[in-house]
Amino acid sequence: MVERTLAILKPDCVRRNLAGQVLARIEKAGFRILGMKMVKLTAETGGGFYAVHRGRPFFDDLVAFMSSGKCVPLALEKENGVADFRTLIGATDPKDAAPGTIRRDFATSKGENIVHGSDSPENGKLEIAFFFSEKELIQNA
Ligand code: UDP
Ligand code: MG
Q1: Residue 81 Cα, ligand 1 centroid: separation in angstroms?
Q2: Which domains does the chain show, CATH number per domain?
Q3: pTM attached to this predicted model
Q4: pLDDT tens digits along 1-57
Q5: Secondary structure (DSSP) of the chain
């Protein structure tokens, strides 16, 4: 099934000038980019995006990190897109991520792990809607 998933190039990715390299891997893996923008999250919007993790020990650090610099949210589409994107990025902790994955190759820690990927088709839709209006999602260019 063709699925939509939200990726975010996190502040460490943008700050370290890795956005182009990560985007190239996403394109090479066959994802269509329906929407792309650059945003600076705040404590409020970052906390809202990761609300499911509120109360976890890492939540405050996560929100501080996500609001520490510019992010690039990407609305992506591909056959089996949600699972394929999680495979492309690898496990949350780069130490556990498979060789050749984006997180294994670029991330420095479990917290600063370069990229976000939705964990289900339902969350993919909800998370895309967090950053993009319908008219910002362009099917055919
Ligand atoms: N995170 C963290 N420590 C943890 C678990 C998660 O700093 O022990 C951060 C990390 O940046 C991760 C994000 O919180 O990407 C969301 O966690 P989740 O478990 O949803 O991981 P993901 O889906 O991003 O692999
Ligand atoms: Mg997650």
Answers
A1: 20
A2: 2-136 (3.30.70.141)
A3: 0.98
A4: 999 999 999 999 999 999 999 999 999 999 999 999 999 999 999 999 999 999 999
A5: -EEEEEEEE-HHHHHTT-HHHHHHHHHHTT-EEEEE--B---HHHHHHHTGGGTTSTTHHHHHHHHTSS-BEEEEEEEETHHHHHHHHH--SSTTTSPTTSHHHHH--SSSS-SEEE-SSHHHHHHHHHHH--GGG--S--
